[in-house]
Amino acid sequence: MKLFLIRHGQSIGNLFLDEDLPDSPLTSTGLLQADKVASFLGRKSVTRIVSSPLIRAMQTAKPLSDLLSIPVEIWMNLYEYREGPAFYSLPRKEIQKFVPDVMLPEEILEPGWSCPGDENRETVENRAKSIVEQLRLSTDDSIALFAHGMLIDFLIREILQLSNGSNIHFVQANTCINCFDLNENEVKVLSLNQTEHLCCH
């Protein structure tokens, strides 16, 4: 299976790092980045698209979904690593204004959904392990997964079986692409933090 891990496009929260904006939408730059990553991945035979439930990730996934006519699956466990307190999302109808036509899961209730907080390294490592196990159960040929910089860092370390406590980190630019070939007994790293698609259109 080929796996693409894509960080979301530039969000309002990326511009105001001193503020706690855990579920901010994309900026105009981020929306353009999402279109560019869709154009690039549209040629990569993607057969399944999954996304974090946070607005910026769903917005980044939507152009590829529209291009390939493949629905975006929302995995509720793909939210960003968060050491701060839990927060409540926008109401379901408000979320749908940002991502029309994306089928929101029933876990996103009419008042919204509660994103866990107070996470530590151990809990996010366990979550990353569960996500990778979930991916390995898939029979799809090619999956595009849209998520967040810190979570993707932990996912990559889980895929590469780096020991817990490792000080190796994988920097993630907005809409960067990380690509792996996942086989039963082998992992091939095809790209890390790839951003060429942002400058070629």
Unreliable parts: none
Number of domains: 1
The major pleated sheet works out as: 6 strands, mixed
Number of helices, where a helix is a run of at least 4 consecutive DSSP H or I residues: 6
Q: Regarding CATH, which class?
A: Alpha Beta
| Total beta strand runs | 8
Radius of gyration: 16 Å
Q: What do you see in this structure?
A:
The structure is a single chain. With 201 residues, this protein is an alpha/beta fold. The chain has one domain (2-198): Rossmann fold, CATH 3.40.50. Helix content is 33%, strand content 19%. It has 6 helices and 8 strands. It has helices at 12-15, 28-41, 55-68, 92-98, 121-136, 149-159, and strands at residues 2-7, 48-51, 72-74, 87-88, 114-115, 142-147, 177-183, 186-194. It has a 6-stranded mixed beta sheet with strand order 3-2-6-1-7-8, sandwiched between helices. A two-stranded antiparallel sheet has the order 4-5. The longest helix is centred in the middle third of the chain and has 16 residues, at 121-136. The relative contact order is 0.21. This is Putative phosphoglycerate mutase. InterPro entries: His_Pase_superF_clade-1, His_PPase_superfam, PG/BPGM_mutase_AS, PGM_Phosphatase.
